Amino acid sequence: MRKDDVLRLIDAIHRERGVDREILFHALEEALSLSVRKKLGVEEGYEVIVNRKDGSTRVIGPEGGDEGVELPSAEELGRIAAQTFKQVFMQKIREAERDKVFAEYADLVGTIVAVKVEKQEGPNLFLSLPDGQEAILPRSERVQTERLHIGDRLRVLVKDIVKRGSRVEIVVSRKSKEFVEKLFAVETMCSKNFPWGVFFN
């Protein structure tokens, strides 16, 4: 991987996915290190360092110093090592995206948000949040007499946020006592300050 390619890759993913550059550099180093070790047939002792300014790379040997080991090219790494690099790098990006979403929504637990019903899978409804993230409304968190349809817009309470592998599951509710209390407070405020409900339309 050429130096310019490294910087272009980092910048492109940063722009497209909003992942911090330093996290991407660490992910790239870990993926490259694992690929080099796999190519050399060792389990530890070789670490790849990527220069943040110019994109150059160097391999640190088992003794902790730069022993002149060159980073293999994609052809030299071989198919299996190259595949390992891709899998590890993409996994690290997904984990970074997961952590970013988790951090953003952790502070929203216990608040009312506006959503749109997108689909139903089994007993669960999947909703889109204002920023495009997906939330799940389990049957246990719905009012039994309420009938919801695809395309409906409604308000829910962010009840919990859970990390599941490389994903984040945002669980919402329309049934909890906290939702009823906070919805009443929101609607009371809207009736006083926004008589036409424009705030949530």
What does this structure look like?
The chain is built from four helices and seven strands; from the N terminus they run ααββαβββββα. The protein has 201 residues and is of the alpha+beta class. The chain has a five-stranded mixed beta barrel with strand order 3-4-5-7-6. The longest helix is centred in the middle third of the chain and has 33 residues, at 74-106. The model is unreliable at 196-201 (pLDDT under 50).
| Total number of domains | 2
Number of strands: 7
**Architecture of the largest domain, according to CATH?**
2-Layer Sandwich
Using the coordinates shown, work out and report the CATH topology of the largest domain: N Utilization Substance Protein A, Chain:P, domain 4
Which series of helices and strands comes N to C? HHEEHEEEEEH
What is the CATH domain class of the largest domain? Alpha Beta
> Which descriptor suits the 3D outline?
elongated
Stretches where pLDDT is under 50 for at least 5 consecutive residues are 196-201
Evaluate the radius of gyration.
24 Å
On the 0-100 scale, what is the average pLDDT? Answer: 81
CATH homologous superfamily designation of the largest domain: NusA, N-terminal domain
Question: Sheet with the most strands?
Answer: 5 strands, mixed, barrel
N→C terminal distance: 50 Å
β-sheet strand percentage: 15-25%
Structural class: alpha+beta
